[in-house]
């Protein structure tokens, strides 16, 4: 007699050794007052299987999912610790991507497929209605009331994407465990295509543009981010066609015209700049530089593909792209960040005919994780925002999972803290790619869909996740920000897609064009590719769905992840499909590229979208903008010279913007793919470096150098000089690591706030003007960029009062260079006792916006600002950077560090901590003009690099550096102390390096 088959089964897996995850969870709960009442905590992983299995097969599945050395498991029976007070089970809501569950389902299918081959049995396959769902039970021991458990539970899950079930010990025993829950999406079966009446008042047009199309129940579908001018242009277009638009047509136009996709603030006229800020300042800078380089131009593809590309060597190109994922990360930090990193990975795969992702980079702008201020999107304390700590932890974990699970190293990044990122964090994620210069004797960076090519989508299926992501990201966050905009990326699915495309299909010449499904989903990817051929026809019912019941407009604009769109000649389809099937990647024909000049979409043979390509892409009206000069706030400054510099240096070392963020660096795998040369943490003292070097081609001695510059702290005073400092720092950091300034490219990411306000536009105009001036002066072209213009939070504070929090105008400049010989890369740590220490560049009284003044502001409880913002001398610095590269080529430099936040004192301390060797410094002959010692030590003047040189190289080094400002200021010693003396040889500082090491690594040691 066969054993009975149960339809819903739960497998619970519990560690039998001390669980590091439980310890980490306890550590994360320390910020709660009630954490003191928690005695112990245990975790159990749960796999709920929605498919009938015999007991025998369930036992095999359990063995597959369990490591018997460290875990024990139970089937359809709760396995709980003997002493617990409360049980909290957390799992995903219906429709949310469940990476662990999906991987378990695929593992089960693979296991039984292997078994079927061995035993000639029937192959097991889950149907679309069946699945595996992951959840986790947290058992808590402690004297907690139900209210306290509710507070604790709210800190453990995100209600936007997760569900939580709480039971007391008594209820748990009574119910014999937690309830089985299957998070299936249940949607209406009736599919409707609505017409949208645009023959309405301007007020109603504004409402539609802001809140979305009206549903029959009186609600709205979510933001279109279309201004009245845009709405009236759409109204006139369909009036000329003598009909009203369908919902899918209006939604599609909104995605295509969104600020996120069209970057209208950068494209439209501003004051006298008729061609817009991007063309006038960013694009023109690159064109001017490339012309001046003539035969030495290393750029290949700029501002016209998913990434920019430069020449790596005679065989390969290197691509680079940095994206932002700010708004989604505010709602769901993990989902927003992982979607950002896997999304920019797809930008790499979608470059040209497909580049291999080889390096990830990141940048995080957060509020202090200790910030306890509560924020609410809704009135009456509704729609509570996540805490600063939850946002930080979630974002870091999202990039961790996205990169580590994809097998892409993440060696380079930064973190910056400011309380104004409390409403919306900034999450920068970037990816470098490697692609042969020629594929089948054709330029790899060129692609073009042709009429007759099949429209094919590959990868993940479409669901409700990511609805209105592009339009949501084009405006400030408020109570109307849609939950559906949140997505969660699946790096495992995407890794299979990436391997199938890059490792096999690409070089077989089976497709003519490829791009990713990012913002706007199919509506943007298909329509963008259709510009190459001249039109498209799509049969929307053919799009594979995660679940039935989606309305056509939802299918068209959904930003569900892990999808690429390709153009495939019909003769190649069978071969292409066979390869995709081999890799377990779903591939589906959904239409044909045409030359009709129209974007036509049908559903079950009914035409639901028929829009002219020219209107879709070029029909949006030009909106001239006017600026108004930003008034710099005035502050009174009267700062006496300190008496205890040692104490100040120790306290600066613990500040969030200076201290070690190794708790991030050590989570991110930077060794995978085997190309790491200069690591994220350098020296025996493991100090975070400002640049890294990676070798992308295993049998080549060439490498790439990556760095960045970001100074939001200067935006309050002068965005022109802020941008100048970002550029100089991105260049200087790379040069200090071994880069040649003559072979260095830049990327720009503008994250602004309230960009429709004249004062903010004025600041933006000044910053972009600086990008032109300094990029051309340094001769460093821009190859790619991205902007995010409305990083504002509109809601309510902890007292229920209306509040608006705007991020400081933030510009990230990323640098990318090629090093001819990675053996010449320079790390930051001092190397040998007796080495000479030089400061290169000038120091001035430039403390405005500095970390030292921020420290004094916190001490004095009032704003300390100063009057002198750092100013960049590009022509002098370019000459300086060229001479440093000459010294590097001749192996004259032992170590180098860029002088950044905290000034010379902090740079010197970090250098010594990294090498765990002492030094003696004299400030007497430092180049520049400085009024007092705190300026000498903490000024953040640009263009400075601290270098150590072996005594045998002194003469040659000084000869090469003869025409640039420099000074020999000290020597490296074995004694583990840093001693700094003044002009009159009076000792200012005597720091023990062991204590400095502890201070530097103390701030986030428990994170």
TrEMBL record:
GO terms for cellular component: cytoplasm. Mg(2+) 2 binds at residues 347, 516. It holds the Pfam family AIRS. Mg(2+) 1 binds at residue 323. Keywords: ATP-binding, Cytoplasm, Ligase, Magnesium, Metal-binding, Nucleotide-binding, Purine biosynthesis. Residues 224-263 form the Phosphoribosylformylglycinamidine synthase linker domain. InterPro entries: PRibForGlyAmidine_synth_PurL, PurL_linker, PurM-like_C_dom, PurM-like_C_sf, PurM-like_N, PurM-like_N_sf. CDD domains: PurL_repeat1 (cd02203), PurL_repeat2 (cd02204). Substrate binds at residues 346, 487, 559-561, 788. Monomer. Part of the FGAM synthase complex composed of 1 PurL, 1 PurQ and 2 PurS subunits. Part of the phosphoribosylformylglycinamidine synthase complex involved in the purines biosynthetic pathway. Catalyzes the ATP-dependent conversion of formylglycinamide ribonucleotide (FGAR) and glutamine to yield formylglycinamidine ribonucleotide (FGAM) and glutamate. The FGAM synthase complex is composed of three subunits. PurQ produces an ammonia molecule by converting glutamine to glutamate. PurL transfers the ammonia molecule to FGAR to form FGAM in an ATP-dependent manner. Belongs to the FGAMS family. This is Phosphoribosylformylglycinamidine synthase subunit PurL. It comes from Candidatus Woesebacteria bacterium RBG_16_34_12. The lineage of its organism: Bacteria, Candidatus Woeseibacteriota.
